[in-house]
Structures are given as structure tokens and as C-alpha cells.
Specification:
Elements: H1 2-28, E1 35-41, E2 47-57, E3 60-65, H2 71-78, E4 81-86, E5 89-97, H3 100-109, H4 114-119, E6 126-132
Antiparallel strand pairs: 1-2, 1-4, 2-3, 3-6, 4-5, 5-6
Length: 133
């Protein structure tokens, strides 16, 4: 019984770490080189900005859903006409889900380390190619 309590406490602490880390990222919206702002539209027509990291592969622009909170990703799948602000320039883009060989290539080129994956709770990673419209 004591072992189960310790396991439960360890799991609770880990979940708290993940929730805290994800909340801080969402609150502070860190920006750096390659950071872009994607504007998506929800079902009621409301527009939402989200700071994400831009990735490049073979001359194409991509973004990844790297975290458990991913409403922006779901909105882009439902309404793929998005707006992107990168390096001060705005452009209309089409969010195209990436699968198969293309997904594997982009993942291999832009891997996350174990520490980042641990802090984010090992979420599945999905990519969108942001094709010009």
C-alpha cells in the first residue's frame, strides 16, 4: 500500500510540473528567432492569435503542435485559411496537415530533446505546412 501511495504522489507531482510548465508557456508566449504568430478562426468567427515556432524544411514553412493545449491546431484543421505574421510581415496561408514521409522528415529535422518532452508530458506531435494562398 505504501508503494502505491508513493507512485500516486510521484504521478501527481509530475502532472503538476507539466500543467505548470504548459501554463507558463501559454501565459508568457515566449518569442525568439523563428517565432511566428498564427491567426486562426473559431466556429463563431472569432479570431485567435497564437505564438508558435516556425520550422523550415525544403523551402517550406511549417508549425508544430508540441503541447497538450492545441486549440489553435484544431481551429486550423477546421478552417485552414490562416494568417501568419513572421518577421513583421503578414501573409495569408493555407494550413495543410502533414502526414507520412513528410511528417517523418520534418520530425527528424526538428527533434525535441528529452527534457522538453518530459516537461510537456510527452504529447503527440503534429505538423502543419503553411502554404502560401
Amino acid at each position: 500500500m505504501r508503494a502505491l501511495k508513493r507512485i500516486a504522489i510521484a504521478i501527481a507531482v509530475y502532472v503538476a510540473i507539466v500543467v505548470t510548465f504548459e501554463s507558463l508557456i501559454g501565459f508568457f508566449q515566449p518569442a525568439g528567432e523563428g517565432t511566428l504568430v498564427i491567426t486562426t478562426t473559431d466556429e463563431s468567427g472569432g479570431r485567435h492569435d497564437r505564438v508558435v515556432s516556425g520550422l523550415e524544411s525544403q523551402g517550406q514553412l511549417y508549425v508544430a503542435a508540441n503541447h497538450w493545449p492545441r486549440a489553435w491546431y484544431e481551429q486550423a484543421l477546421q478552417r485552414p485559411e490562416v494568417e501568419v505574421r513572421l518577421n513583421g510581415e503578414r501573409s495569408a496561408r493555407l494550413a495543410v496537415p502533414v502526414t507520412g514521409e513528410e511528417h517523418d522528415r520534418v520530425e527528424a529535422e526538428h527533434r525535441h530533446g528529452l527534457a522538453f518532452r518530459f516537461l510537456t508530458g510527452f504529447p503527440p506531435r503534429y505538423f502543419l505546412r503553411l502554404a502560401p494562398r
